[in-house]
Automatic annotation (TrEMBL):
UniProt keyword annotations, A-Z: Hydrolase, Metal-binding, Nuclease
Stretches with biased composition (Polar residues): 262-274
Biased composition (Basic and acidic residues): 275-284
GO MF term set: 3'-5'-DNA exonuclease activity; metal ion binding
Residue ranges the record marks as coiled coil: none
Species of the source: Smittium culicis
GO cellular component, one term: cytosol
Record-given protein name: Putative deoxyribonuclease TATDN1
């Protein structure tokens, strides 16, 4: 099985405690990941992502500025210089850069922003201040459509609780970029359908599967618009999530002779149909109870090579996202993996941009 992943692997991220990068990659490739896209969340992070991508044929990078970091535009020598250097990073990265992002909208700003000079005029809950922040975020999100338009690269998009603002901005700028994924999707069914109608892809990770409402939306994503990711080091599937009960069930694809006449089914379809309920005694485990299903982890101060670090998600758990999706959508796991693989390839790795040596 081959699946692509699209999230951060940058070792200087605060959740990386130990230099076990090689082992992290080994685990990722073991579950069938062919390539990994390392997300850049700022100019310096994008440059770092490219640097890491250059160390391994299977690694790629994005270039962009996350909505919670757009203050960097203003605190650079000047915003245009920051933008010009993002363009330069894309050019220097060559075929290693496969998307613009992560960019988008998010109401959150790290508390440190309030210490910055241009915001000292206002208390953080001041209405005028909030308006100013919103304007700033919109301006620099807009700027990254320029970047996508200039570079002709697809977009890796982020949206968190912004009401209709995000979709409005996408609509206004949709003609300027070729394609893209709205990653870590946690929106409503209506929002998902609106984005799909704008010919965008929906990226699902552990955070997108936390609640029953999330699951109901994920179930409805048209398969030709579905992507999966881990958002590591964040967004792992936790025991408290609605998705967790679907992790330890063997998918039982719905038999639809018309649609799936060529389907081979999974190897484990001989298992009993699992009961879909928390704490169910009829839960059926996979034949190969592999590490991705029940990953062992140790606290950072008790780090043990070969095991995960507690609280730090890794690319290989993408297999869990696939398992949950296959279960809630009643789809064959392998078939679903191929579908998301093709979707991801279509957007981020079209033949014209592929590096012949990769
Ligand atoms: Zn995000």
């Amino acid at each position: 099985m081959i699946v692509l992943n699209q999230k951060s692997l940058i070792p200087n991220s605060f959740l990386f405690y130990t230099d076990d990068f090689k082992l992290v990659l080994e685990r990722a490739m073991k579950v069938g990941l062919e390539s990994i896209i390392i997300t850049g969340g700022s100019l310096s992070e994008s440059e770092k992502a490219i640097q890491i991508a250059n160390t391994n044929d299977r690694l790629y990078a994005t270039v962009g500025c996350h909505p919670t970091r757009v203050n960097e535009f203003d605190h650079y020598s000047d915003p245009q210089a920051y933008y010009d250097n993002l363009v330069k990073a894309v050019k220097n990265g060559g075929s290693k850069v496969v998307a613009i992002g992560e960019c988008g909208l998010d109401p959150y700003f790290p508390p440190t922003i309030f210490q910055l000079k241009d915001f000292q005029l206002f208390p953080s809950n001041n209405h005028k201040h909030q308006k100013l922040l919103k304007k700033k975020k919109n301006r620099y999100f807009e700027k990254q459509f320029d970047l996508a338009e200039t570079t002709r690269l697809p977009m890796f998009l982020h949206n968190r609780n912004t009401g209709s603002d995000f979709v409005t901005m996408i609509k206004q700028n949709r003609h300027r970029f070729t394609s893209g994924v709205v990653h870590s999707f946690t929106g409503s069914l209506e929002e998902m359908l609106e984005l799909v109608n704008l010919d965008l892809y929906i990226g699902i990770n552990g955070c997108s599967l936390k609640t029953e409402e999330n699951l109901a939306v994920a179930k409805q994503i048209p398969e030709n618009r579905l992507m999966i990711e881990t958002d590591c080091p964040y967004c792992d599937i936790k025991k408290t999530h609605a998705s967790y009960k679907y992790l330890h069930m063997v998918p039982q694809p719905q038999v639809n002779l018309e649609e799936h006449s060529g389907s081979q089914g999974t190897n484990d379809t001989t298992s009993n149909t699992p009961e879909k309920g928390k704490g169910s005694k009829d839960v059926v485990f996979d034949d190969n109870d592999e590490m991705w299903l029940n990953p062992l982890s140790k606290l950072k101060n008790k780090y043990q090579p070969g095991l995960m670090v507690k609280g730090r998600n890794e690319p290989f758990t993408i297999r869990q996202v696939l398992r949950v999706l296959a279960n809630i959508r009643n789809q064959d796991e392998t078939q679903l993996a191929h579908i998301v693989y093709e979707n991801t390839k279509r957007v981020f790795f079209p033949l014209s941009r592929q590096n012949p040596s990769a």
